[in-house]
Amino acid sequence: MPAHLNKISSYENLKSLFFNNMILMFGGFGGVGTPPTMITSILKWGIRDLTIIGNDTGFPHIGIGQLIAEDRVKKVIASHIGSNPIAGRMMSEGTLEVEFSPQGILAERIRAGGVGLKGFLSEIGIDDPYLNDGKKVIEIEGHSFLVETALSAQVGIVFAKKADPFGNLVYDKSARNTNPLVAMASDITIVEAEEIVGTGDLDPEEIVTSGVFVDYIVPSKGVDWKWIWE
Fold this sequence. Notes:
alpha/beta; 3-stranded antiparallel β-sheet; Glutaconate Coenzyme A-transferase
């Protein structure tokens, strides 16, 4: 296989892609679908002052919440932070900037970034001073709309059930969540895969994310998420 078609890498080879004050986008919902070994590696590398973009802030010791608990994050763009009391405390103390977007709006902002749009119009939050604060309002046919700007990142980290060497991805049920959108909306997309299979081994009908969106693949050390919901 030509080298440019084989995207399998090691964690140490990816270290240079991460730096202080970067914008990092991540897949996951409450930790499920967030790449666990990538989070551990970012902690080990000492990366800090991150702006992170994703559905939520996980839990203090699960998912992206570990970066917040270790004071590595300066700003969060998410739909909620309620499952991570450390994030709530830091927001109240003024040590963590939080920008909230309703979940559907957040997903669409990420999708817009992935397909090359600058933003879109929405009526959601038009009468909510918290949600419309600082946003441009446009009038169309007698109706008011908020301008919701697209989101993108310098690096996006994604969790997949299976990947082939080119980066075609299959997800595991609800662990799919925002991962396909994050893969599209990042300048560099890194996939942590539970299983890496050979070229041609994935059923084309199962592939959700095309390898054209993926730059690097690393094997996951694995984690059992089932207990989170028990």
